Amino acid sequence: DGVTEVLAHRSDSLRDKFVEIPCSEDYDSHRRFEGCTPRRCGRGVSDAIITREEAERIRRIAERGLSLGGSDGGASILDLHSGALSLGKHFVNLYRYFGDKIHDIFTEEDFALYRDVRQRIQQRIAQVFGISSSSMYLTKPTFFSRMNSTEAKTTHDEYWHPHVDKVTYGSFDYTSLLYLSDYTQDFGGGRFVFLDADSNKTVEPRAGRVSFFTSGSENLHRVEKVHWGTRFAITISFTCNPEHSIGDPVL
């Protein structure tokens, strides 16, 4: 793995930490949107956007939704936008599968909090990268993840491979992660790792911490395997292309 530096320790309380990195050429093979497509690239971490209490409330939304299903392997997802929910070795549409019972699981307040948190993260990303928040759009997949040490049963469970979001999902321009549990307290392993040419830079999750970055090859990354406990997070993704935009989920 070479040299590993910690970009954000779990014990840190970071107002705003930002590291600028030269942009990759990935954006050149996609349509550019002036005032949004990254010209300034990098990665940031902030513990000042979402409170720990809000993160705990959001985690309870994830826990309730994922209790309806869950992967046979170590990685389960819940996408409130599309309704995708891990179930065994497959996915089901939560809204079709459970129908009206969904109102017993989620409340309007849950979805209002989800929207509010998304807006705050979007505004902070826009501010840091010097773009207008109205020029970026929520895109898919935006989803909750629950990871534990259960052995992978399908390729969907193999979350630890290095990847580039812009390559995996062409629509992504800015990626963010909101952590909903604490490294070393709720789980072991599971750190987020940026794979740079000279060294690895890790982010240790803590509830309420937001990590965000431009989605191109300048931010090649992976997640370490979770060794024990359960790691909750939500990936919230943004595009500059309005054709790839999705709306906030509604109950």
Short key terms for the protein model shown above:
251 residues; alpha+beta; Jelly Rolls; four-stranded mixed beta sheet; Pro_4_hyd_alph_FE2OG_OXY; OGFD3 protein; oxidoreductase; dioxygenase; Pro_4_hyd_alph
Brief synopsis:
It contains four helices and 16 strands.
Write structural notes for this entry.
GO terms for molecular function: dioxygenase activity; iron ion binding; L-ascorbic acid binding; oxidoreductase activity, acting on paired donors, with incorporation or reduction of molecular oxygen. Its cofactor is L-ascorbate. Helix content is about 20%, strand content about 30%. Strand 6 (about 85-90) and strand 7 form a beta hairpin. With about 250 residues, it is an alpha+beta fold. The strands form four sheets. A seven-stranded antiparallel beta sheet has the order 2-3-13-9-16-8-5, covered by helices on one side. It has one domain (about 5-85, about 95-245): Sandwich (Jelly Rolls). The model has no long low-confidence stretch (mean pLDDT about 95).
Helicity, as a percent range: 10-25%
Q: Output the strand order for the largest sheet.
A: 2-3-13-9-16-8-5
Mean model confidence by pLDDT? 96
Strand segment count = 16
Query: H/E element string?
Result: EEEHEEEEHHEHEEEEEEEE
From the N-terminal CA to the C-terminal CA, the straight-line distance is 44 Å
**CATH architecture, please?**
Sandwich
Which percent range describes the beta-strand content?
A: 25-35%
CATH superfamily: q2cbj1_9rhob like domain
Low-confidence stretches: none
The total count of helices amounts to: 4
Q: Give the CATH topology.
A: Jelly Rolls
CATH class: Mainly Beta
Instruction: Give the radius of gyration.
Output: 17 Å
Computed structural class: alpha+beta
* Main sheet overview: 7 strands, antiparallel
Total separate domains: 1
Shape summary: globular
Keywords: Dioxygenase, Iron, Metal-binding, Oxidoreductase
Pfam families: 2OG-FeII_Oxy_3
Protein name: OGFD3 protein
Cofactor: L-ascorbate
